[in-house]
C-alpha cells in the first residue's frame, strides 16, 4: 500500500491560503506537477489540504473542464461566484461545483478571525455538457456519503465521518485521505496504522477507525 504523509510535502499556497498538495495528476498539470505529490485515481486529478488565513480568500478566478469539491473541516467559508453566490459554509459542509459546458467563476473567503481548514478535490468530468451546477450537502455521522459520481465508469467520492470502532471496506482500487483521527488499513495480510493528514492508495482495503475520524474515499464505479 502506498502512503503519503504531511511531513513529506512542503507547505505551499497562494493568495490567502497555505496548503499541502497531496495529488497533482500529470494528466492535468503536466510538467508543473510537484514531484513529491501523488498521481490521482480515475477522474481525480488534485487534492489539497488547505488553511485559509484569517480573512483570507482565493481571490476571484475561473475554472473550466473541472468539477471542484470543497470539504469544510473547521471554521467557515463565504462563497462568492457565478453559482451559489453569498452562501456561507459551516464545518461539516461539502460544496460541489460542476463546470458543465461553460465553467464557473468563484472566490472562497474566510470571514473569521482565525484560520479555516478545508480540503479541496478536482475531478475531470467525463462529459462537458449542460449548464454549470452547484450544490451543498452535509454528510451524516457514520455514513459513507457519496458526494460525487453515480454512473458506471464514474469516479465516486465518499465522505465518511467515522466513530471509533466503525469499519468500512472497498473492493478494487481505492485512494483515501485521512483528514483527522486514526485508522487501521488492512490490505491482504498487511495492516497499516495511519495518523491524520495521510493519503493512501491500495487494493481491496478494509478500514477500521480507532478514533473519531474523517476520511475521503475515492474509487471507480
TrEMBL record:
**PANTHER family annotated for this entry?**
QUERCETIN 2,3-DIOXYGENASE
- Cited Gene3D superfamilies: Jelly Rolls
Q: Which organism is it from?
A: Isoalcanivorax pacificus W11-5
Homology family: Belongs to the pirin family.
- Origin superkingdom: Bacteria
Provide the organism lineage as a comma list.
Bacteria, Pseudomonadati, Pseudomonadota, Gammaproteobacteria, Oceanospirillales
Q: Pirin N-terminal domain: from which residue to which, for each copy?
A: 55-123
What name goes with this protein? Answer: Pirin-related protein
